Prior knowledge:
The protein has helices at 2-13, 15-29, 31-49.
Amino acid sequence: MPGLIARLTRFTRSPQGRRTIESARRAAADPRKRAQARSLLGRLRGRRSM
């Protein structure tokens, strides 16, 4: 899958990719967003085990 990796690398180096990464970092630093993500992951894991 070198094509996929190359495309991801190209995207992360683009201005849009940098904005996306910075936005994700800000969301990850927000305690409320972290709690939402933890809750979502818990629900997804709960469904898989059924």
